[in-house]
Every structure is written in structure tokens, then in C-alpha cells.
Amino acid sequence: MLLGLFTSFLGFLQPSIRDCSCPENQFTSTGSIYQYDFSNGKSIVACGYLIEDIADSTLSEFVLAECGNDEIIGFWDAMTTCEITFSHDTLTLKELYQLPLSNNFIDQEVVWTIEKLYYNENDVLQRSKHINQNLMLFSDSQIKQILSDYESSSKELNEQEMCLLDRLFVATLSGDEQSKAFFLAFGEAHPELDGAFLHQYRILQDMLQAWEER
Fold first, then answer.
1. What is the pLDDT of residues 9-53, one digit of tens each?
2. How far apart are CA 37 and CA 146, in angstroms?
3. Which residues pair with 87 in a beta bridge?
4. Ramachandran bin of 53, using left for φ above 0, alpha for ψ from -120 to 50, beta for the remaining angles
5. What percent helix, strand, coil does the chain show, rounded to 5?
6. What is the pTM of this model?
7. Quick one: which of 25, 45, 166 has its CA closest to 101?
8. 3-state SS class at 192
């Protein structure tokens, strides 16, 4: 019994020694970075890339897989950064995103979504995901400033204009209808959108849809 308690305690603190790999997949390598052992004897591994200069267990462009299963659980692409923790037989993924939430609109890393993976009483893997609704959104005065900045901008597609897009996005989350109209029409206003800028806009569109469906 003491040995079992000690093993459970170690599993609570950190992933176990790697002895499992991910199945062949089109997204990333099969070599595991972390392995998480559940009390029902099942294990989940993470395969992908650690983010340098960030705390351990922060990954990007990675997959999760169940040991002994030929199918992956899911894939998180290179535009996604997740902090992964494991405790009480629950694997928690916090998706991180940079948003201009400070008073002077400087980007801050925030938790956008929280997803939990766990097994039910029949040892079937369960997934639950929700959006962080505790974000510090914009005040009326901040929204007024954003609208003024966007209306007076040159509409030239550059980094500054994409920063305004991020601010319009947060203003939309804050409930401002004019900001939402500008945000939704951003693609029409910038038909030259492509590459990384287009990908950024599509990510924000998906985030807005998820926010409205929460």
C-alpha cells in the first residue's frame, strides 16, 4: 500500500519515465516528450516540440496519444501553445494566446481555453473544454480609442494594422457591436490578406465563433 501511495505521489508531481511512443502520424515525430500514467493503468503521451525559454510542459505543434492505440487523440498546430499539467488523474491543457489586454494595449499571454482529459468509470477517455471567461476585457473608453484608431488608420496591411485587428477582436469580446462590424469586415477591407496575416485573422475568427457559442 505504501508503495502504491508513493507511486501515485510521483505521478502527481511529474510525468513518468518515457516508455511509450506516439503512433505514426502526419503531424509530428513519434518520440514522446512526456508520458502521463493514470491509476486505471492507461497512459497518454505527448509528442512534439517544447517551447524554449518557457516553463517545462509548454508545448507547440504536438499530438497526444494513448499508449497502445493506433490513433492519436488530437493535434495542436504550430500556432498553438499549450501548458500541460497532470494531477488527480486529469490531464489539463491550457491554450495560451497573446492578446492586447493591458491599459496601453500591450500584448499579454493569457489562458484562452482550458481542456481536461480523464477516464470515466468504464475507462473511456473523456474530453471537456471551455473558454476562459475571466479575461479582463476593455472599458468603454478603451473601445472608443480603438474605434478612433481604426477609423483613422491608413488601412495599409502591415503589423500595425494587424495589432488594430487584435484590439478590435478584444473589443468585440467586450460586447461592442461597431468593433464587431469592423472585425467581420476586415477581410473585405483588406482583400490582399494572405500568409501569416490571413492565418492570424482566421484564428481570431474561430476564437470569436467559439466565444459566441460558449
1. 334 434 444 478 899 898 998 888 899 999 999 999 999 988 865
2. 47
3. 90
4. left
5. 35, 30, 35
6. 0.81
7. 166
8. coil
* One-letter amino acid for residue 170 of the chain: V
Q: What long-range pairs does 32-39 form, CB within 8 A, spacing at least 24?
A: 33/59, 33/62, 34/84, 35/67, 36/11, 36/86, 36/91, 37/11, 38/89, 38/118, 38/119, 39/8, 39/11, 39/89
Q: How many CB atoms sit inside 10 A of residue 175's CB?
A: 11
- Alpha-helical segments (H) within 106-194: 140-151, 159-173, 177-184, 186-189
Could you give the CA distance from residue 117 to residue 139 in angstroms, rounded to a whole number? 35
Distance CA 185, CA 134 (A): 27
Cell numbers standing for residue 192: 490582399
Using only C-alpha atoms, the chain has a radius of gyration, in whole angstroms, of 21
Q: What digits encode the pLDDT tens for the residues 146-204?
A: 999 999 999 899 999 999 999 999 999 999 999 999 999 999 999 999 999 999 999 99
The letter for the amino acid at 150 is Y
Burial class (CB in 10 A: 0-12, 13-18, 19+), 158: exposed
Identity of the amino acid at 109:
E
